[in-house]
Design a protein that fits this description.
It is a single chain. The chain is α+β, with helices and mostly antiparallel strands. The chain is built from two helices and five strands. It has helices spanning 3-18, 42-47; strands at residues 23-28, 33-37, 49-55, 58-67, 70-75. The longest helix has 16 residues, at 3-18. It is globular and about 40 Å long.
Length: 78
């Protein structure tokens, strides 16, 4: 991962926490970080794209948004 992406990973986590998001997991991939959160802020909800996941035969709605060089994702609350 590029040095600027590592800095983004740290800064985006801080920004998410300041917006009231609970960061659950951070996974570093080859080119970018993937950050899983509990509850999105209104700002994230506005820029998010939705998709449907199939996990063990169960479907659930999930969302993602790109924030700087990171991908932030969360699942719809039941």
């Amino acid at each position: 991962m590029k040095a600027e992406n590592i800095v983004d990973k740290q800064n985006v986590q801080l920004m998410l926490r300041q917006q009231g998001c609970q960061v659950l997991r951070v996974t570093s991939r080859k080119t970018r970080a993937v950050i899983e959160i509990q509850q999105p802020s209104p700002q994230l909800q506005q820029i998010a794209a939705a998709f449907t996941e199939n996990v063990n035969g169960q479907q659930r709605q999930a969302f993602y948004a790109q924030v700087r060089s990171c991908v932030v994702h969360w699942h719809q609350a039941n």
